[in-house]
Amino acid sequence: MRKKILALVGIAAIALTAVAVAQEAPEPPHQQWSFDGPFGTFDRAAVQRGFQVYSEICSNCHSLNLLHYGDLGPNGPGGGIGYTEEEVKAIASTKQVTDGPNDQGEMFKRPGRASDKFVAPFANEQAARAANNGALPPDLSVMAKALSGHADEIYGILTGYKEPPPNFKMGEGMQYNEYFPGHQIAMPPPLTDNSVTYADGTKATLAQEAHDVATFLTWASEPTMEDRKRTGAKVIIFLLVMTGALYGAKRRIWADVH
Amino acid sequence: MAAPRSQSKIVRWIDHRLPIFTFIDHELNEYPTPKNLSYWWNFGSLAGIMLVIMIATGIFLAMQYTPHVDYAFDSVERIMRDVNYGWLMRYIHMNGASFFFIVTYIHIFRGLYYGSYKEPRELLWMLGVVILLLMMATAFMGYVLPWGQMSFWGATVITNLFSAIPVVGNAIVTWLWGGFSVDNPTLNRFFSLHYLLPFVIVGVVMLHLIALHQHGSNNPLGIDRKGPQDSIPFHPYYTVKDMFGLAVFLIIFAVFVFYLPNALGDPLNYLPANPLQTPSEIVPEWYFLPFYAILRSVPNILFIPAKLAGVLCMFGSIFVLFVLPWLDTSRVRSARFRPVYKWVFWLLVIDVLALGYVGAHRPEGFYLILGRIATLYYFFHFIVLFPVIGWLERPLPLPTSISAAVTKKGGARLASATTPMEKP
């Protein structure tokens, strides 16, 4: 009986591996991430650098519709990315937010507040497509969860631009990318060495920028991740103790039956 | 009706008018349970507890969820981000669906191995199949609610199955959708039904329990209780055993909820639904993959087109469970005393796993062939093997009673308590 169960578990494991392997684009190589593993947390400095890359480059085309500026600060879900409330206010106030209608019935612009959503680069999908050769830059709020390779895949795509192989047919205005499904991506290579000048003095190589922005987008996709892992540790420790106690109770109660 | 041995005046006052305490006493303290149940018997109560967990978390999620095509996706993300412990409620609910199916499938296979569907438990088994069908409908509609890419396209594929019905198929699909495509009316009714059906499940679970308590649990030996020496009261013996099993189960569940919350789901569902962009591969959640494999493996059968044949076989794969008590001709319940069925049972387990494996892939080449073989085998197993093995098999001698088997070599080693018959 035990052997049979083991054999079945083996079969199931093989089946699951095969499911995981069968994907179209090559799997992006695994990077070291601060948030990996059951005790991983977000490297706040990396998230802030990634936020800088997003703000200066990505945000020209990509929205982050699910985020508020306040999420970056201590009152945000998961306690933010290390900015103080004043810093968050300062970040928000550099943006122009459309508000209204006012008493005259007109929409007006005002500086952003912490409670505002991230301002999107385009007013609507049509405007985004018109500015991008017909392609729609997707919202990045939960992109790190929507890609099967998660942060590795973001890193892979951002660093995966290459010359197409000799007889590879490229579509009009498309770029060859090693890790994008189908290898053709409409987004031109967004990052190069020194695309940004980091406020903290870190050397802005392409790899560094890609790594930082992937960290930021992973935070953005689930700002409550650290809460989740911390709560999980407590819950599981509690359950282990409870399991031990119940096992003892079970043994005692059943002692007279055996 | 005997009043419970309570000293409390209030309890006696209430019980005299509403015999709720007598009822509890009768169903827990007096309820005789075979003394030899193994841990495989824990999965029924685990399924019941999962149902409660799903309803409890679901009610909280519904307080924050917006069933509208423009807001559904964002409202779910709002729960994840801005609602206190919303992420916890959602991850419990989301992974809870998977774990509900895991424990239910184990519960069903346990019933298959130990013949728990046989006389006098046929209706108990059939009510269980009804619960399974309701669970599947509920899970399917729940998966549509976050309105991600797989929600939308899964809903489109599955509702389109009804168009396979001759003549009225397309009209039925339009009626199901409340329009000419999966859209806001579809999402609204799915939300409404997703909230309703779990309570219908609760009702059928109660019937399932009434049927269970009529003759009591089956047991690993598959023989009836012969007297008080064969049974122990449910409480405290099985309450504590169920609690211990629950604690172990919750540890595994917690590992997924807190550390692998998205491992069982499709990442594509974190992209908002887009009716203009079909994903390259539309697959249901893992717990539907075996059925999906059957659906997609079936070719044209005579004059029946492949789509209709696939739908019929998919529903047939569940329907066949309804008639299983009459397909199995063996009078011996437990596979322990059925030298042939004992092995054949595992072929069905492997077959269903193979179907699940096939279901995750496009029905082409190797997968199509394997899917067809596995589908054929599935029906062969139920329609041919069950009756034939029952007729031809020579079962081993049954122990005279549960307690005889228990006392012979000690409770823990029941399997070795019976001497297998020499092969002729």
Structural class of chain B: mainly alpha
Structural class computed from helices and strand pairing of chain A: mainly alpha
Q: What does the average pLDDT of chain A come to? A: 91
Number of domains of chain A: 2
Give the low-confidence spans of chain B: 409-424
CATH architectural designation of the largest domain in chain B: Up-down Bundle
What is the H/E order of chain B?
HHEHHHHHHHEHHHHHHH
Q: How many strands in all of chain B?
A: 2
* Top CATH class of the largest domain in chain B: Mainly Alpha
**What's the CATH class label of the largest domain in chain A?**
Mainly Alpha
Oligomer: heterodimer
How are strands sequenced across the largest beta sheet of chain A?
Answer: 1-2
Rough outline of chain A? globular
In percent, how much strand structure appears in the residues of chain B? under 5%
Main sheet strand line-up of chain B: 1-2
In angstroms, what separates the terminal alpha carbons of chain A? Answer: 23 Å
Overview of the structural elements:
The complex is a heterodimer of chains A (258) and B (424). Chain A folds into two domains: 30-67 and 137-241, Cytochrome c-like domain (Cytochrome Bc1 Complex, Chain D, domain 2, Orthogonal Bundle); 68-117, no CATH class. In chain A, 42% of the residues lie in helices and 5% in strands. Chain A has eight helices and four strands. In chain A, the strands form two sheets. A two-stranded antiparallel ribbon of chain A has the order 1-2. Chain A has a two-stranded antiparallel sheet with strand order 3-4. In chain A, a hairpin with an 8-residue loop joins strand 1 and strand 2. Chain A is globular. The model of chain A is unreliable at 13-23 (pLDDT under 50). By secondary structure, chain B is mainly α. Helices cover 63% and strands 1% of the residues of chain B. Chain B has 16 helices and two strands. In chain B, helix 3 runs antiparallel to helix 5, helix 4 crosses helix 5 and helix 6 crosses helix 12 (306-322). The N and C termini of chain B lie far apart (54 Å). Chains A and B meet through helix 1, helix 5 and helix 8 of A and helix 4, helix 5, helix 10 and helix 14 of B.
